[in-house]
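Quick one before lunch.
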Amino acid sequence: MDSAQYERKIAARFATFDQDGNGYIDREDFSAAARAVLAEFGTTARSDQGQAVFNGAEAFWQGMAGIADVDGDQRVTREEFITGAAKRLRDSPDRFAEIARPFLHAVIAVASGGSPEGSTPEAVARVLRVLGTAAEGAEQIARALDADGDGRISEEEILAAFAGYCGVEAPDA
Ligand code: CA
Ligand code: CA
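Model of the calcium ion complex:
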């Protein structure tokens, strides 16, 4: 990967987290994501499932801030994301993805209507769409996640896919 590709990938990851597109990642981006998912599935914020999504979003933000908010001002700038998170994204995307686990777990519970077998590809595509993935891409990704074609996507499959998405190789410098 050359450095221009690397820059583009990092910029795309940053944009994924900067949900409101105001140029930095903060707690509001995570609570906005939580609200969007709950609205999509008609789940109230006060319900147990709704609370779990908000708690997961807060834990996700805390994990992100712990890794990347270098100056501690509760905002992760693009600069901080690159210096703070890029190394982690490169060296251990699995560990990075773990900070998202409570959020993903809670979102899957909402999207699957509590089914222990996991979410359908359609439900996962809805989640991806409300979080900003283009409609066509969302359905493609969701279909690909159901690798064995049984119509269900498990938490582990989603976490592995998220880790894969987060993994960004550094340029050979
Ligand atoms: Ca933002
Ligand atoms: Ca900061």
